[in-house]
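In the lab's daily routine, each protein ends up as an entry in a very long ledger. A line of letters takes care of the sequence, but it says nothing directly about the fold. The fold becomes a row of whole numbers, each drawn from a learned catalogue of backbone shapes. The protein below has been through that process, and both of its lines are reproduced in full:
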Amino acid sequence: MEINIFQLNNYKLGSVGFTSRELENLKIDFVEEKLLSNDYNGNNPTNKIVYLKVLFDKGSKKILGCQIANEKNIEARLNAIKTIIEKGGDLKDLVKYKVNPTDDEWNPDILNILALSAISKSEENSTNVEANNIENLLKNKEFLLDVREEYEYQDGHIKGAINLPLREILEKKDTLPKDKDIYVYCRSGHRSADAVNFLKSLGFEKVHNVDGGFIDISFNEYHKDKGNLENSIVTNYNFD
């Protein structure tokens, strides 16, 4: 099994196993679990935000693939996922896996934490949509709302998305359609989740949070476009 690593500015983007798009094409029923966390452990932690996405079979919970973005420290984690996939391992195996073999004691890595979150996460009553569905939403001319600050929007956004910072929603709520589905995104999915709840309290019923935010969208698009923005759905990639 091959591990693929790309360099984009200061970031390393790594992938092993299947991607979401490949699993969709194979019509495999899978689940994505994503995590944005500080890279705080291992031999030489960056103490900066690392993006993780692990794909697993919806029924058996077997690990199918993983994508990572970080300034460094992605190789050990990709190798851990590779080992688990090759052994037919599942989420429970990932929870227990010692990602950093030099640790004298088991020191939970963010991969272990992601697996724990995936096991405990309830998917019922979720109005979230996955970042890899954005292209279809654009084709269907759905309403996309970017609730980041204007400077974040200018640094990179989904083409055609409307920018309305979270702090301005109450003041400008009348500019938003109540008769359409509204798909809300931010940097990581946290502010957009707050925006969705706020809009629902204001009487907007058709609002959905884009899980993983623009970081996840950027990762998906870069992996698909190989850095060619001309045909991308985003104006620029952003992993910060």
User: Anything to note?
Assistant: The mean pLDDT is 87. The two ends are 29 Å apart (CA to CA). The chain has two domains: 3-120, 129-225. The longest strand covers residues 30-38.
